[in-house]
Amino acid sequence: MARNAHPELTQERIIEAATELFTSQGYDKTSMQDIIDATGGLSKGAVYHHFRSKEDLFDAVADRLMNTMSETSGKTQTRSKQGTALEQLQSLFSPERARKRLEAADLMFRKFNPKANPKMIGMEFTALVDERDDFVDLITQGNQDGSMHVNQVEQAAEILRLLANMWLLPFFRQGTQAELRTRAACFFTIMRGLGIPLQDRGFSDLLASFGTDTKGNNKGKTESEGSI
């Protein structure tokens, strides 16, 4: 048998098939045979060569989803190093930069059913808390340069990551335009209460454009109550 000259492409093909199935019908309801069938021609041996089990494949899918959603992952999402710590953090919520994250997340989570994917939710939660160090450093810097006044730095970093990546965005839990505007207003109020005075500079308008009642928007109700 000829060797696969592009194993990374085969691996990507498997992950894409698994992502579609895991997010649409859930981990528990998806079998390895379902994934093999969805690859469109790969053999059972080819799939198991790259992923020994459904658990291993789930880990790869979860890594992809978390990299898509994480505000500090990837070259395109690295914050600006210029200005105060608050200005650096504020840049993550500029419409120009946030739009890229929202659009990427929408593509990945459009068919996501949170009730069918409790394990995926749990892994996302754990990863966000475990990977708080970037925000801990940034908030510490903000306390030092006077742009922030945060008492519980580590806890504030966890709250910021969890709210910004799981609660604020309309994919784990959808909402109408009005509901998303209210959610954004609540988020910025919470941040100010923690001593992180972020401002809404068009972010709520951008977020509202992903509402379930947006004209021409394909984000209608799915079988889930909502989904980020």
- Give the total of beta strands: 0
- The proportion of residues forming helix, as a percent range, comes to 55-70%
Seen as an oligomer or otherwise, the chain set is single chain
- The rough form would be described as elongated
The SS-based structural class is mainly alpha
Number of helices: 11
Summarize the biggest pleated sheet: none
Low-confidence stretches: 71-78, 218-228
Q: Assess the beta-strand content as a share of residues.
A: under 5%
Distance between the termini: 43 Å
Give the helices and strands as they follow along the chain.
HHHHHHHHHHH
Radius of gyration, rounded?
19 Å
Provide mean pLDDT, rounded: 84
Describe the protein's architecture and organization.
- The protein has 11 helices and no strands.
- The protein is mostly helical.
- Helix 1 (about 5-25) crosses helix 2 (about 30-40) and helix 8 crosses helix 9.
- The protein starts with 6 loop residues before the first helix and ends in a 20-residue tail after the last helix.
Write out key terms for the chains shown.
mainly alpha, disordered C terminus, 228 residues, single chain
Provide a concise account of the structure shown.
By secondary structure, the chain is an all-alpha fold.
